[in-house]
Structure formats: structure tokens, C-alpha cells
Amino acid sequence: MARRLPVPWFSGALIAASAARFLADISEGGGHPWQLYGPAVRAGEWWRLLSYAIEHGNLIHIVVNMSVVWTLGFGLEHFDAVGAWRTADEGAPIDASGQLADGSRIDGVVALREALVRRPELFVGTLTEKLLTYALGRTLTHHDRPVVRALVRDAAAHEYRFSSIVLGIVHSTPFQMRMTQ
Description:
This protein is mainly alpha-helical. It has 2 domains: 9-117, no CATH class; 120-176.
């Protein structure tokens, strides 16, 4: 019988690190200096682009993000800490199955890839939101949602090429009209 690890090791570590960072921010009164701040990024603090990915603004934000990490973690469980493929953990076969938010069942990395490929607009939409956030140096608002949808539609016409997303952002009104501080 396949062994279901109680916590996917990579997902568990990422969730623990994110929760610790969130709790540290709360204990410090929020607004950690690692957060994304456009003028600081333009002044050469490029590391803020990466740290922004692990900073969470509120409890709902971290819970939603970590639930996605948890779900995807089981699909990647066949990989060990250095990325080597493994079929067993301590002699027991690994159960890498799980269920995505839309109800799709996954059983390993191939099924996870197929689920992402089946609905590329979801992955590309999230990627576009993150890239636009970084490009603008601010959090997106509801006013930016139509721009994101248009960028994803335009990227679809170009087979979702990364270059089409980046060029779309560069030519977008929010990017062209951003204010430097």
C-alpha cells in the first residue's frame, strides 16, 4: 500500500517559513522593511522583488496561498530535497495523489502538469498578476483587473509565450502611466 506522508516535506517547509514570517510581521506591528516598495526597488534593492512573494498582508492572504501550496505539494512529493526522483520513503511507496480546487484529481507531477496545461489561462493569469505587481511596484487594485484579463487574452493569441506577457505589461497603460517616487 502506498504511503501518504502526513505533510509533503517541501510544502510543509514552505508553509512553516511563510507562517513564521507572517507571525514575525504581526509581532513587529506589520510593514516589514522587506516588503515590495517601488522606490526602493528602483534604487537597487532588487531582492525586494523576491521577498514580496513570501510577505503576506493578512491572515486570509496567507491561508489562501498556503492552501494552494499544500494541494500542489502532494503532486510533487516524488521529488526529494535535491530534486531527485524517488518512489518510496523509508521503504514505503509514496502516495502523490491529491485534489485541486476545481475537483480535478492529481496523482503525481504528470497529472499536475496536465491539470495546469488544461487551463493555462489560470496559471498565466496568476503569473501576469505577479509580474504586473512587480513592474508597477505596488499592489494591484480592482482597476487593474481588466488590464490583467486583456494581457492574458493577448498572451493566448501568442501561445502564452512569456515574452508576450512581458511586452504586454511594458505596453500597458498602468505601466506607461506609473509614477516614479
